[in-house]
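Before a colleague's protein record goes any further, I have to sign it off. I want your independent view on whether this chain really folds as the tokens say. The record follows directly below this note.
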Amino acid sequence: MTSPATDLAPPSAQAPEVQFTDGLAEVFSDLADLFGNPRSVGTIYGLLFASAEPLTMDAIATRLGLSMGSVSQGLRTLDDFDAIERHGQNGERTARYYSAKHMLKPLIAGFVRQRLQPRLDATNQRLMDLEALLEQMPQDQAQEAAWRLERVVQWHDKARTFLPLARKILGAG
């Protein structure tokens, strides 16, 4: 499946600034996919990142060929990640324009808070549930399963230990 940015006109038919914007949208689309987020979230962020001016939802949807629902959901996700800013213009009371924050810290912090931490917490509960199952297994099977489960628990504990260090290294708190 291709990202919306790659579904636009062929690169040779586009102006260099459009190719640049599409290229950034594709880079962020790939990164979003790599980290388990919808590609459209990365594409939206890439477009906002490349844009010198804040954009409306309509402009984003039109430029990327996405539905308003996809753009709305993508902007909500990016807002949860603290990766975008909302702007009102000309005295508007509600924010109708969006721009990307150009800092790594809010992206990493938002990703960790919204995606990694909840997944690690859920995995921790699953591991505890699996440990409880060991008591119901025949002794010979339980011993082998316990050894395998212990390996996974060790990996999980290392991931939980690494998370704060990764946030610190990447400047996310």
